[in-house]
Amino acid sequence: MTLSSDRICLRRWRDEDRDAFAAMNADARVMEFFRSPLSRVQSDAMVDHIRKHFSEHGFGLWALEVPGVAPFVGFAGLAVTQFTAHFTPCVEVGWRLAFAHWGHGYATAAARLAFGYGFGTLALPDIVSFTSSTNQRSRAVMERLGMRRDPADDFDYPSFPEGHPLRRHVLYRLGSRSYFGALSQ
């Protein structure tokens, strides 16, 4: 299945995406708010995990293509959260783009396509997104998307040890009522 707009295309992964994905995951700028850049083996394992998620759930993190620009610039889509917190189980909207493609609105456009699928096709009641409290770029995307944060929902990401500077995360939410209400305006 493919989701597309006049600017971007969210599509299933191809084996030829692996090289560009590994290069992106090895870039310290892209991985600034993650534990560390990924090795090629870790990056390939992530592609395998994404494909498995599609098989299990019928949706996932699509490869992000910008026709006329690049066949692969990153990923965006929906994922079932894999850890336990006060707001799980839930479906998260997420994205990761190669540095050369930042600042063009691709993450926002891709997340909007994912929302359309999540709220329209899957009939999800709400979708969340979260990031390190210091990740201002991703937080700005969440806010542009109309997602809202309640500081009472902020949490410590379980895989980061106590005292780690990236441990504190902020949680943003968008409900289907807000999504469909914004569309009707």
Structure description:
The chain is globular. The chain is built from 5 helices and 9 strands; from the N terminus they run ββααβββαβαβββα. The chain is an alpha+beta fold and 185 residues long.
List the helices and strands and how they pair.
Layout: E1 3-4, E2 9-11, H1 18-25, H2 40-57, E3 61-66, E4 70-80, E5 91-97, H3 106-121, E6 126-132, H4 136-144, E7 148-149, E8 155-156, E9 168-175, H5 176-184
Antiparallel strand pairs: 1-2, 2-3, 3-4, 4-5, 6-9, 7-9, 8-9
Helix pairs in contact: 1-2
Provide a brief overview of the structure.
With 185 residues, the protein is α+β, with helices and mostly antiparallel strands. It has helices at 18-25, 40-57, 106-121, 136-144, 176-184; strands at 3-4, 9-11, 61-66, 70-80, 91-97, 126-132, 148-149, 155-156, 168-175.
